[in-house]
């Protein structure tokens, strides 16, 4: 026996064709037989449309089949179902889609099964509808703000965890999130954990200032997976990790023990002119620590503004070297001092330079063009010349005196004879 039912669902009409099971006469059915024909478990997808048939059974003409929802109780779920019955059959179908996400927002539970009680002439039958969830929504990564990490971060450190920031509107979630990214400095170890780790060292000073990570996330590992992408912007911050560097001509990077030269004379005191450039150091980090200058103290093994001999003092702020007393009267060899440049308040080791001071001339002025190795700047090399000139002058004076004496003596003798 075949019946046609027109069902009104949300202002649309759907034709449902039902047939008495096995072609039996409905009037011959008993309530016991009718309820036993109701399937105990019925599977419905959460995306099934209103009007979808759940089941239909034959029934005795003298009795109607009634039903109620045993679990979960309430007034919401009954509105999702409808039935149609006449003297011959009972039809049970959806009135609204059993959208799990919608039901979660209403009921506050992830509903995947509904328990029904069907009754016909006091004959009870339990029936269960199992709601099959569908993967309807893309996963989402909520990345807000900017991530700053210091350049001295250890390789292997977890810098960001994606998992707590990843969500999926599907209820229940359709699977485990799988993360992926491609970058030479960062990696995701164990794609399901979502931990972004540093995979190679960072160096702010070499220009590694910002990284843009393109991240992919899937909400399951099967062919139903949905995928989305996100971008994480990472900024590298500078740290105090470098010693001072001297501003030495021709030295691009760090120069170990750059050598400076100054020329003095036997009477000079005051600031020395240093070649090839003034003693100056800077902080290569962007933190711009102040630089303090000093001499290495051989006696104490520390540093001080004055050198051991008392001849020199260095300005701790500018690096200018002052000669405190003249070199005359002293056994003056070539003077060499170790200059220390330190970043004030920093734990980084200092930088060292060597200053060589040599005697150049007796003139009160200093010849800035004189460099080590030029014989004119060696005070001892001038002594033979000074002695030779003195001897020549002495001989000349004595010879002149003898000549004058002889001429005078002869003049007197001639006068007497006259």
TrEMBL record:
One example GO MF annotation: calcium ion binding
GO cellular component: plasma membrane
Keyword Amino-acid biosynthesis: no
Keywords of this entry: Calcium, Membrane, Transmembrane, Transmembrane helix
GO biological process annotation, one example: cell adhesion
Membrane-spanning parts: 382-408
Highest taxon in the source lineage: Eukaryota
Xref: Pfam families: Cadherin
Domain Cadherin: residue ranges: 149-246
CDD domains recorded: Cadherin_repeat
UniProt-recorded name of the protein: Cadherin domain-containing protein
